[in-house]
Amino acid sequence: MEKKEKVVLITGASAGIGEATAILMKKAGFIVYAAARRVDRMRKLEKHGIEILDLDVTVEESMVKCANIILAKHGSLDVLVNNAGYGSYGAMEDIPMEEAKKQFEVNVFGLARMTQLFLPSMRKQSSGKIINVSSVGGKIGSPHGVWYQGSKFAVEGMSDSLRMELKQFNIDVVVIEPGAIKTEWSEITQENMLKISGHTDYGKNIKIHAASLKKYDKMGSEPLVIAKGILKAATARKPKTRYAIGKGVSIVLFLKTILSDRLFDRFLMKTLLG
Ligand code: NDP
Fold it and tell me: Bridge partners of 242?
């Protein structure tokens, strides 16, 4: 199987960061596979010459089918961008365990299973890049974000572990840590938190928090900013282990390193809940 252009698969490419990354990587010369559940939403990507695939990262058969299509055509994958994800926000007490598990199914187990499916071929060709889209929320906690932050903390720890495990096979593992980005993420997250906890004893803070997410979303960076970071990681000979990207992200992460936990809590609570 002849292979000149590098092949990339981007999960969660029907919107936001994934969509922007698919277009940018196509322009950069990659053979791009864009995958998500809303296939109709990805039709416009086909006009850019991007291949679209139906993928639900919570369904085993769907993930196997997606991987098999790519492996049958190209023999291997050069870059896997594990980007699919959503924010299951709300008070921990109110979120049914079923939903908590779904959050981890999408943000953690989906990412892990997709990685498993491509690793044998990457090992065989002695190269590959796994780019995991985490979040600044993979480094800092947040009220009402127990499961989301938990899932992204898991992505961070898994990526660090896998990076060492795969070094012997010349496969890189990179973490992308976006801050607030103008995508559908914020609206979906606000909806989730208001639906689950807007009417409970946590309602007062939940409403304030949802309103500040709305405000910060407007002040956020464009998805292209993250797409550029992903492209940089995908094309670097020696990529950094993590890329924290977006307005204000470096300041927040710097404060996290210099402040005590309690002082940082106060800063974050003030920022989110006033
Ligand atoms: P969007 O909501 O715009 O896009 C999320 C994408 O994930 C969609 O394409 C959606 O596709 C896909 N997705 C969700 N569930 C599944 C599933 N079960 N199977 C396959 N695909 C799925 O959000 P973003 O672009 O902002 O999010 C991309 C990543 O960036 C996420 O991991 C998110 O946590 C992270 N992030 C975002 C931030 C932000 O402020 N926007 C900040 C930090 C991190 P479909 O519904 O069609 O399946």
Answer: 175
